[in-house]
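Quick review question:
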């Protein structure tokens, strides 16, 4: 059964789009943004030894009974990288620096601000509780534990963890091969040498926009020539590209007009997983497969392209790349003004946050590129309601979480 709602489409993508299978080991610095192909287990325990998180003095808590002005004899020092040798004597203390090993026999650290030196002793102005300021061996991770699970999109903080565990490289899935096609006889490019657009022509912004969005992903991108509105040419282009790419992103040609040829071409050459969802903008979105390539057919209007890529394109890319399904950052925010829509549609309206409220762009046409440049994100107005009043709280999806 074909999905009708966004959530159903996302569920279908997770079930039907399989990740690429090829795995390669790459240096950690080259693995950022790639999908971890297998679990990585810790080869080391972190921290590897009990250590202190402050500069101060290490001592045995049982040696101190008074709450203030307790005296401890200085027995030496434990510095970072140079541990105190031997056992801490009864009634003794060692100077200790942040990250240094806790001396044998010590079980508590007092911060240097809470004591003062008096010859060969220190005087505690206040006595901390047992175990204060000690970071225990293994409290971060123990050898053999899963450090990072397969499916994780590796981030810089993951590099820090893996380096701390002694890892030099990581097993990741290969990069995806993605082709981008715009369709439409009216489209021109800035570098075609033909000067300004003639009557009825426009410059294509969809391919460059999608290419820019894809640069944040582990993909090899190829921008393919604009396709004129011709059924035979569309089929030939899709068939040829399907042999070279894991994913084809097309714009235009997925509605029901006489010059919309992407949908019937995908249907003739392969299969359609879904077509048309109850969302706005971008209702005539298509997901299909031709040969080895998945085809995500986006509408032609640029706002619809951006919104559908954010809502569905990331999910398809994640499934193919082997990532966990992407999550939407959702922030509850009150609307600044009223808005109406068809109750059957889940509408995503462009807005920005001003004075803690979501201010909607002056118009919501899917051709208005100024609305994307003006906005901070999208307000998710769910199906089942046709009217929203000022002050109604809705989910706000910031662009910073949608285009990563």
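Suggested answer, residue by residue:
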């Amino acid at each position: 059964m074909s999905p009708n709602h966004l959530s159903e489409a996302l569920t279908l993508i997770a079930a039907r789009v399989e990740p690429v299978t090829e795995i390669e080991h790459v240096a950690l610095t080259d693995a950022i943004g790639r999908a971890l192909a297998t679990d990585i287990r810790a080869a080391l325990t972190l921290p590897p030894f009990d250590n202190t998180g402050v500069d101060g003095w290490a001592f045995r808590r049982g040696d101190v009974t008074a709450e203030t002005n307790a005296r401890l004899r200085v027995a030496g020092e434990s510095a970072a990288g140079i541990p105190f040798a031997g056992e801490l004597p009864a009634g003794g203390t060692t100077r200790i620096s942040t990250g240094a090993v806790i001396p044998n026999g010590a079980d508590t650290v007092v911060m240097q601000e809470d004591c003062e030196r008096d010859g060969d002793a220190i005087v505690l102005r206040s006595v901390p509780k047992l175990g204060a300021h000690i970071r225990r061996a293994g409290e971060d991770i123990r050898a053999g534990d899963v450090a990072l699970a397969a499916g994780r999109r590796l981030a810089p903080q993951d590099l820090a963890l893996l380096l701390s565990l002694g890892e030099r490289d990581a097993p990741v899935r290969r990069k995806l091969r993605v082709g981008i096609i715009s369709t439409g006889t009216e489209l021109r490019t800035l570098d075609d040498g033909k000067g300004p657009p003639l009557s009825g022509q426009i410059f294509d912004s969809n391919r460059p926009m999608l290419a820019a969005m894809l640069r944040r992903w582990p993909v090899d991108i190829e921008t393919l020539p604009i396709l004129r509105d011709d059924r035979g040419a569309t089929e030939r282009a899709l068939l040829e590209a399907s042999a070279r790419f894991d994913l084809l992103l097309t714009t235009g040609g997925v509605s029901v007009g006489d010059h919309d040829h992407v949908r019937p071409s995908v249907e003739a050459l392969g299969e359609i997983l879904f077509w048309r969802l109850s969302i706005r903008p971008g209702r005539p979105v298509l997901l299909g497969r031709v040969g080895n390539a998945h085809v995500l057919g986006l509408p032609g209007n640029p706002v619809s392209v951006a919104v559908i890529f954010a809502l569905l394109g990331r999910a398809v890319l994640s499934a193919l790349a082997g990532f966990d399904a992407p999550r939407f950052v959702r922030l509850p925010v009150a609307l600044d003004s009223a808005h109406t829509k068809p109750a059957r549609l889940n509408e995503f309206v462009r807005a920005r946050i001003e004075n803690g409220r979501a201010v909607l762009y002056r118009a919501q046409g899917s051709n208005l590129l100024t609305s994307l440049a003006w906005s901070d994100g999208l307000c998710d107005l769910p199906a089942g309601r046709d009217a929203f009043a000022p002050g109604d709280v809705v989910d706000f999806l910031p662009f910073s979480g949608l285009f990563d």
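Why it works: The mean pLDDT is 95. The CA atoms of residues 27 and 169 lie 4 Å apart.
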